[in-house]
Design goal:
heterodimer, A: 96 residues, mainly alpha, Histone, subunit A, 6% strand, B: alpha+beta, Arc Repressor Mutant, subunit A, ten-stranded mixed beta sheet, three-stranded antiparallel beta sheet, binds zinc ion
C-alpha cells in the first residue's frame, strides 16, 4: 500500500472533506493506486534533467496596468449561496 | 545571580504596490470603494479564468528589491499556496515559494541620537504575491455570519522578510521607518497603515545567557495585529518581558513547542495567543500552471539600478557634506521626504548658509506644517522668500527674534520680506543713527561704563537691552561692538 490511512485522513482534512469509515478505506485504496501508478515515473533516472518550472515554453507574459470595468456586484454575489446585497455571507470567522 | 537575555527580532512587512489595477486582472485597487464593487471572475477565482501579470506591479517590485540591494533571480515563477479561508476565494493564494524573484539584500539603520550602533539588517527575500479579501464580523449586532468583501483580493503585495537581525524595539522601529521612507522615495507604495497598505508581523524570541555561560534560544513567537510603528515597539517590549517570564517558569527552548502566534491588543497593551489554524503550515505549494515564469536579464537589473534616483541614505550623506549640517539635521530633513529636502536645498543655496536654513526649517517651517497638518507644497512661504528673509537675518537687517515675527506674518499675508518688515516697522538703522544711539547710552550710564571697564561682561549685555528699548530694530551684535569701542576710545582718549 503506497498511502497510509493517516495520510488520507490528513489530505481529506486539508480538503475539507468529511469521510465515513467506509469511504476512508475506499479512498485509501483508490488514491493509493493512483499514487502507485504515478510512481512508475520514478523509475526513470532524472539526475541530469533540470526541474521544469512550467509546462509551457513561454515567459514574461504581462498585461499593462490599465483599468478594466469590474463586474456588476449583484451579478458576482449571485454566484454565492448567501449574500446581503453588499457582501458574501459565510459562517462566522472568529479568532482573527 | 541574574540571567541576561537578548531580544531577537525579525520582521515581515507587506506593502501594497502603487498600481492602478490588481495583480492579475484589470479591477481597480482604489481604497474605500463600496464592498465587492471592484471584482471580476479572475480575482474571485472562478474556474477557467486566466490571470495575467501586471507589468507595472512587477516593475515596482523589481525596483524595490534592487534598492534593497537584493540579488535578482534571473528566473522566477509563481506558486499556489493552498489554504482554506473565506476571504481567499480561490482556496489558494498566488505567491512565490522556492524561486522568489529576489533574495539576500540589506537595509542600513542608524540612530541619529546614538542609542544603538549603525547596522545592516539583512533582507532574506522580497517577493510578489496577491492580497486576500477582507472578512468582517459584526459582534455588536449579534450577527451569526461573517461578511466578505473581495475588493482587496488580488491586489499586488510585496512581502519583505528581514533576517532576525534586530535586537531591540527601537531598532525594529528604525528599520520600519527607514523601509517606509525608502519605499516612499521610490514611489512604489504609499505605505498607509490605516488603509492597510503597510502591514507588519514580527518573529520574536530570546537568546538567554544562563549563569553557567550557555546561550539558550527560546521558542519563536509570531506577533500580528500591530497597527502602527508605535504598536510594534510596544508589542516587542511587552513580548521580551513575557517571554523571559515564560522561560523562567518553563525553561522551554527553541524546538520544544511549535511556533506560537499571538495578536497585539493595543488597548490592553498585551499580546494574546491566537487560535491555531489547524495544519496551517501545510500549504502544499506547487507551481501555478496559469502563470508563466519571468526572466530578468542583468541589463534590465542594471537599467533599474540606474533609474533609482537618490535614496535616503545617499541623500543624508550628501546634505551633510554639501551644506555642512550635522547627521542629526540631515536625518530630520531627509525623513520629511524629497519635497522638503528640495525646499531646504533652495533656501540653503539662496541664503548661502545651510546650517541657518536647516535651523529655520526645522524650528519654524516644520512646526507650521505640523500645526496645520499640511505638506511643504502647501506651505505659504516660498523657498525664495524664506531665503530672502534669512539673507536679511545674516546681514543684520533683522535679528532672529524679529525675523520670526516677520515669517509668522508672511505666513498669513503672503507678502514679501520687505513689505512685511515695513509693516512691522522694522527699518534698518544706518551706521550713523546707530552710533548716535550708542553715544547716548554711554553718556547716560556711567555706572555701566565703569562696570565694563572693570571687565564685567554682563554690563555690555545691559547696554544691548537698553538699546532695544529705545529702538527695537537695532542689531544687538553691532550695538555691543559699538558700545565697547566707544568705552575703549574714552579710556584711551
Ligand atoms: Zn478582478
Amino acid at each position: 500500500m503506497s498511502l497510509t490511512r493517516e495520510e488520507v485522513e490528513k489530505v481529506s482534512l486539508l480538503g475539507r472533506l468529511r469521510l465515513t469509515e467506509e469511504e476512508l478505506a475506499l479512498m485509501t485504496a483508490q488514491l493509493g493506486q493512483i499514487v502507485e501508478y504515478v510512481q512508475l515515473l520514478s523509475e526513470l533516472n532524472t539526475d541530469d534533467v533540470e526541474p521544469m518550472a512550467h509546462a509551457v515554453e513561454l515567459s514574461n507574459v504581462f498585461r499593462d496596468d490599465v483599468l478594466v470595468a469590474s463586474y456588476d456586484r449583484a451579478e458576482m454575489l449571485a454566484n454565492a449561496p448567501r449574500s446581503d446585497g453588499e457582501c458574501y455571507l459565510v459562517p462566522a470567522v472568529l479568532g482573527e | 545571580m541574574t540571567t541576561r537575555y537578548e531580544l531577537i527580532i525579525g520582521l515581515e512587512v507587506h506593502v501594497q504596490l502603487l498600481t492602478r489595477t490588481k495583480l492579475f486582472c484589470g479591477c481597480s485597487t482604489r481604497f474605500g470603494a463600496p464592498p465587492n464593487t471592484q471584482t471580476c471572475p479572475v480575482c474571485v477565482g472562478m474556474p477557467g479564468v486566466l490571470p495575467v501579470m501586471n507589468r507595472r506591479a512587477f516593475e515596482l517590485a523589481l525596483k524595490t528589491a534592487v534598492a534593497l540591494r537584493c540579488q535578482i533571480a534571473p528566473f522566477t515563477k509563481w506558486d499556489r499556496k493552498q489554504y482554506y479561508y473565506p476571504d481567499l476565494p480561490k482556496g489558494y493564494q498566488i505567491s512565490q515559494y522556492d524561486l522568489p524573484f529576489s533574495s539576500d539584500g540589506c537595509l542600513e539603520i542608524s540612530d541619529p541620537k546614538g542609542r544603538f550602533e549603525r547596522k545592516r539588517v539583512g533582507i532574506i527575500r522580497v517577493h510578489l504575491e496577491e492580497d486576500a479579501g477582507k472578512s468582517m464580523h459584526d459582534e455588536a449586532h449579534g450577527r451569526a455570519d461573517s461578511r466578505i468583501d473581495l475588493n482587496r483580493a488580488g491586489v499586488p503585495l510585496l512581502e519583505i522578510v528581514s533576517q532576525p537581525d534586530m535586537r531591540s524595539p527601537l531598532e525594529a522601529k528604525a528599520y520600519l521607518t527607514e523601509l517606509k521612507l525608502l519605499l516612499s522615495y521610490l514611489g512604489v507604495s504609499d505605505c498607509n497603515m490605516q488603509e492597510g497598505s503597510l502591514r507588519v508581523d514580527a518573529n520574536v524570541n530570546l537568546h538567554v545567557y544562563t549563569p553557567d555561560g550557555h546561550l539558550v534560544p527560546t521558542p519563536i513567537v509570531e506577533i500580528k495585529n500591530m497597527n502602527s510603528f508605535r504598536a510594534v515597539e510596544r508589542a516587542l517590549a511587552y513580548e521580551a518581558e513575557r517571554q523571559f517570564k515564560v522561560w523562567q517558569e518553563t525553561g522551554q527552548r527553541l524546538g520544544d513547542v511549535p511556533k506560537q502566534t499571538r495578536g497585539w491588543d493595543d488597548v490592553a497593551n498585551i499580546t494574546r495567543p491566537q487560535r491555531h489554524k489547524e495544519e496551517s503550515s501545510d500549504y502544499r505549494y506547487f507551481p501555478d500552471p496559469d502563470l508563466v515564469p519571468v526572466i530578468v536579464s542583468e541589463a534590465e537589473v542594471e537599467a533599474v539600478r540606474q533609474s533609482l534616483g537618490e535614496l535616503p541614505a545617499e541623500m543624508r550623506n550628501r546634505l551633510e557634506v554639501a551644506y555642512n549640517i550635522s547627521p542629526y539635521d540631515s536625518d530630520v530633513l531627509v525623513n520629511q521626504g524629497q519635497a522638503l529636502v528640495a525646499y531646504f536645498e533652495q533656501v540653503a543655496q539662496q541664503c548661502g548658509d545651510g546650517k541657518l536654513a536647516s535651523n529655520w526649517i526645522q524650528q519654524d517651517v516644520l512646526r507650521t506644517l505640523k500645526e496645520r497638518t499640511i505638506g511643504i507644497d502647501e506651505y505659504p512661504v516660498s523657498a525664495q522668500r524664506l531665503a530672502e528673509l534669512l539673507r536679511a537675518v545674516r546681514a543684520g537687517r533683522v535679528d532672529t527674534m524679529r525675523g520670526r515675527e516677520v515669517l509668522a506674518r508672511m505666513l498669513d499675508t503672503g507678502r514679501t520680506v520687505d513689505e512685511t518688515m515695513a509693516e512691522l516697522g522694522i527699518a534698518q538703522l544706518d551706521e550713523a543713527q546707530l552710533m548716535a544711539l550708542c553715544k547716548e547710552l554711554v553718556a547716560e550710564n556711567p555706572k555701566l561704563v565703569a562696570d565694563v571697564r572693570a571687565g564685567k561682561l554682563q554690563a555690555a549685555g545691559a547696554f544691548v537691552g537698553q538699546a532695544k528699548r529705545k529702538n527695537p530694530n537695532v542689531n544687538p551684535a553691532r550695538v555691543r561692538e559699538l558700545v565697547l569701542e566707544l568705552i575703549q576710545g574714552q579710556s584711551e582718549g
